[in-house]
Design goal:
With about 290 residues, the chain is mainly beta. Helices cover about 15% and strands about 35% of the residues. It has 3 domains: about 80 residues, SH3 Domains (SH3 type barrels); about 60 residues, SH3 Domains (SH3 type barrels, Roll); about 120 residues, endopeptidase domain like (from Nostoc punctiforme) (endopeptidase fold (from Nostoc punctiforme), Alpha-Beta Complex).
Length: about 290
């Protein structure tokens, strides 16, 4: 048996492992996880049950996950969206299968106590958050979708979970211009390079791995810039970084250099990044 599977996408530890990995890894005990979902707007996923360690990724309200263990206020989980494994605060999740009907399709949207934009907002949701809609209302010409607890969200900020919210991932990514860069972030409140790619593609109905090295290994088809040519939507990879091409000469990415989502001339980005991390390592067409 091999114990070299990627821990980011396979739930196993020396003492406990996903039963689906039995025969592939060694562990003291194998279990079938329980279904759950995220119960707060944004849940940080960490590599250890330690609030002081950096986050690996984030899960959004209503996203489904599998819970393998809860202990000392932490849950060890695997996200359904991309298979990412990590630790989340136990109070950030709830048991059961997600019944979400709609997904937030704008970078950020408010939830109100009722169908009126003049009400004080209860919470703010990021693009990609999932909600269960049970009714509709209209106030002063603005349509609202009603949630199970009677709260409301602008109806035009949602789309059904079964339908792509957009056709062009680059247009989705461009809506995040000036959003702050956040290591491990994948929301409209803060996002990193691979999170931007993953979320933008998800809104067009395409799944993508979470981290840039995983995307470089598995996402789409490898292309050669000279022979294949570059076009809108292609991905440029560096060691530890990725960005969309908005056109053959323009890079759109969550930049650790500017610390926000930005666009810049591709050649200027190549020259700037090369001073620290070398030239691009790969180009892919998702």
């Amino acid at each position: 048996m091999s114990d070299s599977l990627d821990h980011r996408s396979h739930a196993y530890r020396p003492d406990l492992a996903d039963i689906r990995l039995k025969g592939q890894v060694t562990a003291d005990r194998f279990i079938e996880g329980a279904p759950g979902e995220v119960a707060i707007p944004v849940a940080d996923i960490r590599p250890r049950p330690d609030p002081e360690c950096s986050i690996d990724t984030q899960a959004l309200l209503g996203e489904a996950l599998t819970v393998f263990e809860t202990s000392n206020g932490w849950a060890w989980v695997q996200l359904a969206e991309d298979g990412y494994v990590g630790y989340v605060r136990e109070d950030a999740i709830r048991e059961g299968v997600s019944q979400a009907t709609h997904i937030v399709s704008v970078p950020r949207s408010f939830v109100y106590p009722g169908p009126d934009l003049r009400f004080p907002q209860l919470r703010t949701l990021s693009m990609g958050s999932r909600v269960t809609i049970v009714g509709a209302a209209e106030t002063r010409g603005t349509p609202y979708a009603l949630l199970e607890d009677g709260s409301a969200i602008i109806a035009t900020h949602l789309c059904p979970v079964a339908e792509p919210a957009a056709e062009d991932a680059v247009s989705v990514a461009a809506r995040f211009i000036d959003t702050p860069y956040l290591w491990g972030g994948r929301t409209g409140f803060g996002i990193d390079c691979s999170g931007l790619v993953q979320l933008a593609l998800a809104m067009t109905g395409k799944s993508a791995p979470r981290d840039s090295d995983q995307q470089a290994a598995h996402l789409g088809t490898v292309i050669e810039p000279v022979s294949d040519g570059l076009q809108r939507g292609d991905l440029v990879f560096w060691k530890g970084h990725v960005g969309f091409l908005e056109d053959p000469d323009t890079l759109l990415h969550a930049s650790g250099g500017t610390m926000y989502v930005t666009r810049e001339p591709l050649q200027a980005a190549i020259e700037r990044i090369a001073r620290l991390y070398g030239p691009p390592t790969l180009y892919r067409r998702p």
